[in-house]
Each structure stands twice: as C-alpha cells, then as structure tokens.
Amino acid sequence: MMDAVLLVILNLLFIYSLISLMEKRLHKSYRDKYGAQIEEFEAVIYCFQNFDFDNIPKPQINQNTVYNNLLIVTSSYLKAYQALDMSKNQLIEFSVRNKELIKSYIDVLESLKLSTAKFQGLDRDAEVAMADVINKVEASIKKLTQEY
Fold it and tell me: Does any domain span residue 108?
C-alpha cells in the first residue's frame, strides 16, 4: 500500500515538473514568436486605452516583432494625436484673431460711414458717388455683423 502511495506521489511530481517545463517552454516560444509576454501586451493596451502614453515603452529600431509593431503603431498614433491637438489649438487661435480682425474692420467701416455723412454740400455727381460708398459700407457692415 505504501508503495502505491509513493508511486502516485512520484507520478504527480513527474506530471507537475512536465507541466512546469511545458509552461516555461510555451512562454519562451510565445516571447520568441510575438516579441513579448501576454502581460506586456496587456500593459500596453491598458496604457493606450487610458491615454497614458508616458508609460508605454519606446519601440526598438531593428526588431520586427508583433509587440514592436504595436509599439510603433502606438507611437505613430500619439504623434498624430499631438499634431491634431496642435492644429486644433492653432485653429482656435486663428478664429479668435479673425474675430478681432472683423471687429476692427467693422469699427473702420463705422468711422468711414460717419465721416462720409459730413459731405452734404457737394455737387450732384459727388453726392451720388458718396451715397454709393455709404451703401457699400452699410452693406459690408451688415454682412460682417451677421457673420460675426
């Protein structure tokens, strides 16, 4: 009876050591095939989902593995995201400057409108020309204030 128990224990130890060796071999082959362990892939994906790009490792230059390609794609995405963010900020700044320019242009047109109203005693042709200028100025002011 004791021999049977000892034989079962030895068999279980042998099976355990085989499983342990197979697991180590599987991890090594996975690392050789994909370039990283599953935990490293999960860490990169987690950081990517949380926009935590500072904790993502930098890609290696002369390494052609799935993991390194994932790092390259992540790095490219980060650069595109930063460029898009910078473009958005430039567009917002341009919009603010454009509004300032339109406001200044409206102020100039208002001043021009007031200064042209002073010329009342001119001959008929000059009055028609001034009325045309005043109408164009008023139309410009109206259009700009609608867009502004």
Answer: yes
